[in-house]
Amino acid sequence: MGLNFEDPSDKSLVSTVTLGYIDYNQIKGGEDGFNYYSNIGLNHWAVLMDDVQYNKEGLGMGMGGRMAIIDSGNTSI
Fold first, then answer.
1. What is the mean pLDDT of each run of 10 residues along the chain (77 residues)?
2. Which long-range contacts (CB under 8 A, 24 or more apart) does 19-25 make?
3. According to the model, what pLDDT value does residue 7 have?
4. What is the dihedral of CA 6, 10, 12, 14, to 10 degrees?
5. Which parts of the chain are beta strand (E)?
6. What pLDDT score was predicted for residue 30?
7. Cα gap 72→77, rounded to integer Å
8. In the Cβ-directed half-sphere of 35, how many Cα atoms lie within 13 Å?
9. Residues contacting 29, CB < 8 A, separation 6+
10. Model pTM greater than 0.90?
11. Which residues are CB-contacts of 67 (< 8 A; sequence separation ≥ 6)?
12. Which residue, 2, 34, 69, 72, could crosslink 18 as a Cys pair with Cβ 3.0–4.6 Å?
């Protein structure tokens, strides 16, 4: 699954979701710019958030990071 979230204030851009393939044209830097994240959840789809930035400033996740559940169909969110 690929998620491409565009700037919501720019109406000329469209966010996209791809299932079953990777559209490298949607990735800055193409295939070389692609990042892969392992599923660390036991009962949920989740990724490790250990180096998060907002507005170019680190949020200091500490303690080895946090698990972020990404399954939108999950009632844990």
1. 79 83 86 88 84 78 76 62
2. none
3. 82
4. 20
5. 2-4, 16-18, 46-49, 53-54, 57-58, 66-69
6. 92
7. 7
8. 5
9. none
10. no
11. 40, 41, 46, 47, 48, 49
12. 2
